[in-house]
Amino acid sequence: MLKPKSVMLYIFIMVLFILLFASFDAEPYFEYAAYMDVTDAGMYRALTDNMTGLRPEEPDSPDTPVGTVVEYVLNDESSVIKSYKFILYYLDYAEYPSNGIFDSDLLNALKLYQAERLLEVTGILDRATMESLDSEVLTYSEGKYGDPILYYKDRLQSLGYYPKNAALTDGFDAELTEILKKYQKNNGLAQNGLLDVDTQVCLRKPLENQADADGKVQNPDATTVTTQN
To answer: Residue 20 is inside which H or E element, if any?
Structure first.
């Protein structure tokens, strides 16, 4: 028969042994305590799916708001898709975009663009492709249409290159080509008749800092550039 002192010592050793191994096993999960799902469904998953109820969910990327779509695929529709279709259009990879639907034409245009830019050719409008498209320097040329062209035509009209009451369209026509050559000559730019980056930068300056249709500059010393609306 064991003596009371021996029994107490045995119990103490067993409790110490249990606590030691229990704390060792539980330690990796202490940091996840705040993420534990203690609902019925969560506890069921914890017991039946390799302890998934104890795993913290992946936090949202700090630069990606909750619900933000970071890539677009065939048949998606969005104003974002339309904006990138316009960039591809100005780069001569696609036709004029009439909507924001991800169609087969966009799929083919993306594959060609990705291949030529040494990106992974997926045909998906993913983050890497969007970043590449955003970095493109666009030149607008004869035969193109869009809001940027109308914006620059409006600037030219304010400088007297178009009649004051002329109705402007968003099309880049032969008339605009000739007007741009005149504008470029008056402002010391290469006379190529294109809305290239140098011409765009010059046109975004305050109107008083640009040469008008008569070649006059009201305030040639200022260098502030306006932004496109």
So the answer is: helix 4-30
